């Protein structure tokens, strides 16, 4: 019974997201398929622990500051963050673009490190949103280096939602794009998530040679994919290679040989 209560409590926390920042007891009960009395008891406990808090202006609840505290602790303890923070901040400062590290988790990318180019001497922020794999530079850099079975499983369950007119929504078109990505060693996302943003992504490998995440560089399409693209790709791959080596990956990293 105690285990069931924990599962239900975690389930309530997972109901919240960017599209549902506030929820009432009735909404939570309906989404969880539980009685309102049961949900109210769980919510009361979560509020007491600081994991939920009641919105003063309504009868709804939002995620509490305790989760933010725990998130900072978790991000700060991540091995990849500890080993890549300086490299990623240097890349952002050197190129003038926002750089991110994302980990492959639950069939999507969890951004765990953000580095801005204009924040000299500061430590990169350590957490961020969960973003889709199929239409982002970070995601495509990972998908291109998954095994065939892993990619097939991903495509079977993911909904390729059209986010802009440039989003790839056909599975076979995406497969072809990922094949090109694997051949050249880096991913390109050109206005596929946001109409004003492009990104370059490079895979990160662990000591077993498995892709576990990616490093990206993003900004305006004209700047990222313009005349300086080759230089940006070289810097990106060099940084990603350094991160992979720090994580125990020893084989020579992909070298960029120019546009495919």
Automatic annotation (TrEMBL):
Protein name, UniProt field: IclR family transcriptional regulator
GO biological process, one term: negative regulation of DNA-templated transcription
Domain HTH iclR-type: start-end pairs: 3-65
Statement: the UniProt record of this protein carries the keyword DNA-binding: yes
Domain of life from the UniProt record: Bacteria
Pfam families (UniProt xref): HTH_IclR, IclR_C
Keyword annotations: DNA-binding, Transcription, Transcription regulation
Recorded GO MF terms: DNA binding; DNA-binding transcription factor activity
DNA-binding found in the keyword field: yes
Domain IclR-ED stretches: 66-249
Membrane-crossing segments per the record: none
Chain segments annotated as coiled-coil in the UniProt record: none
